[in-house]
Amino acid sequence: MGKYLRIANKNEFETNDEAKKIIGQIIKTWNNKIADQKEKLDTLDEAAKTGWFNSIEIKFDLMVMEKQNPIITAESVSPIGLVDKIFPELSDSQLDLIPFCWVFLEPLGYKYERMREVLSGIDSTEIEIELFQWSLEIVNIVNRAVKIKSALMAEEIMDAAYDLACEKLDKGMAKDAILQLQVHLLKEIKKKEKNNS
């Protein structure tokens, strides 16, 4: 449940229906991937069980997550005054992606208010510049993947994003952050399509 709440950018479930759906998905995954291996479960110590449980990926229902109202949107931060210093050579469409860097900065303990300060033009440190550039590179890669028609090519692109995310995040956090970013980007695409129609 904690993994889902982190991906959905919230501290608790908003409705009983949301909680039931997510807990149902967790139970279904448990039944499919762990329950039928009772012998293995009985022989493992606490640390091995924890490692096994953490290695299992649960594909949370994106429809549930898309209904959330995350802090992150293309309009949530105005990247004025930072382009030359942190992001030289960015196109306008890439500027719209900068707020999504938060998905990768937050698991590192980076504060949202500090991100807003840096993006508004307050002086940043060399390590902050490096983190912003690293996170925007991942955002750009995932953005390409969600727009591509070929599932095979999208998967290859997502693998590259995952490898880059693993440079600074552990494997579980990297997967969670990329899933969260996909949800946010798909939401933005739908919003733009709606506005254009």
3D architecture notes:
- This protein is mainly alpha-helical and 197 residues long.
- It contains eleven helices and no strands.
- The chain has helices spanning 2-7, 16-33, 38-43, 46-55, 62-66, 92-95, 102-105, 112-119, 126-147, 151-165, 171-196.
- Helix 9 runs antiparallel to helix 10, helix 9 (126-147) crosses helix 11 (171-196) and helix 10 packs across helix 11 (171-196).
- Residues 66-71 have low confidence and may be disordered.
Structure summarized in a few sentences:
This protein has 197 residues and is mainly alpha-helical.
Q: How would you summarize the topology of this molecule?
A:
Elements lengths: L1 H6 L8 H18 L4 H6 L2 H10 L6 H5 L25 H4 L6 H4 L6 H8 L6 H22 L3 H15 L5 H26 L1
Helix pairs in contact: 9-10, 9-11, 10-11
What distinguishing features does this structure have?
197 residues; mainly alpha; single chain; globular
Radius of gyration: 19 Å
Structural class of the helices, strands and pairings? Answer: mainly alpha
Averaged pLDDT, please?
Answer: 78
> How much strand content do the residues show?
under 5%
Low-confidence stretches: 66-71
Question: How far apart, in Å, are the first and last alpha carbons?
Answer: 37 Å
Give the proportion of residues in helices.
Answer: 55-70%
Number of helical stretches of at least 4 residues: 11
**Major sheet description:** none
Broad shape: globular
